[in-house]
Structures are given as C-alpha cells and as structure tokens.
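Session log. Operator J.P. requested a structure for one protein chain; no other inputs attached. Running the standard single-chain path with token output.
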Amino acid sequence: MSAETLASREVPKKENRFKVWRQTRPFWAGLFTMIGGVPIAYLPYGDMRLGNITLAMKTTAGMSALVIGVLLITLGLTMWFQPIVRVFAGVAAIVLALVSIPVSNFGGLVVGFLFALIGGAMSASWAPAPEAEETGEAERTEAMPAEAEYDGEPEGFEEAVYASEAETRAVPATETTSDANGGRNSAG
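Structure written below.
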C-alpha cells in the first residue's frame, strides 16, 4: 500500500466518524465512570470559600481517594479505547465505587459514587451489536425463482409426524427422571 492509494470504502463519512466510534464501544459507561472519578478525587483536596470562611474537606484518607479517582478515570478511558476488557473495567469500577464510600467523603458526596456505580454497571452489561447482513432485495429474489410455488407439505410429512407420535405414546410416562430410559436421559 502506498501513500497514493485511496482509503477503503468502509471508512465512514466525516460527519459519521464519531457516531460510529461511539456506537462500537461502551461510550456512556466510560463517560459516567470518568465523571464519577472526578468528585471522588477532588473533594478530599478541594476547599470552598464562603466570604471569609473557608470550608476544607481534607481527610486522612486523601491519598487513597485520589488513587481511587484516578483509577476510575483510567477505567473510563479503558472502556473507550479497549472495549474488549469492558466487563473487567465495569466490575473494577463498581468495586472502586463501593470502596470510595468509606474512603472518600461518602464516595464524593454520593455523586461520584452513583456515577461510577452506574458507569460500571453499564460497562459490564454492554455488548457489541451483531454484524448486520448485507443482503439486498435483489439477492433475495435471485435465490428464489419466480416460478417456484409453495405446494404445501412435502410428501410423507404427515406419516412421519404420526409415526413419531406413536413412538412417544408407546413409552410409559413416569413421575421421576431416574426411571426414564433406565436412568439415562438424552436431549435428542
């Protein structure tokens, strides 16, 4: 492949690139997880000023809250750029959100906890869409000739059905599965 060759036809249009990228990974799960990591990491170090009064939420567990927040942001980015590990990232985000309750001011004043918990659950439950079949209407009509008509059931169909019903009636029905077929059960 040289620099002069054109891109493949499967590259989406410029307007649709972000939409296609977003739909092929747990985008909202990663976004919620990253949003949840911000208050968990910030609140132990942040302070709020009301006039001359400074409210500081500095705790002894500030470093562990920072680590949990940074890990949640990293897990959110992992959900975006490595969707193959979405289940691991989702479960890890849920665990970190639960750990943040006692460690980081009730999980970032419950806001960070809820965002991280919802993002982790969304990531663990997300599944990629199945591949769409690209069969057109023309291909379907070519597969079935126009003169072929449905004549009903094939010959011998009714006899086969009645024969299988007669075989099932011949076997005595029992109440326990251990009595069925000498204790052996088959799925077929």
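Operator note: Helices lie at 17-23, 27-42, 62-81, 86-103, 105-109, 111-125, 137-143, 157-170.
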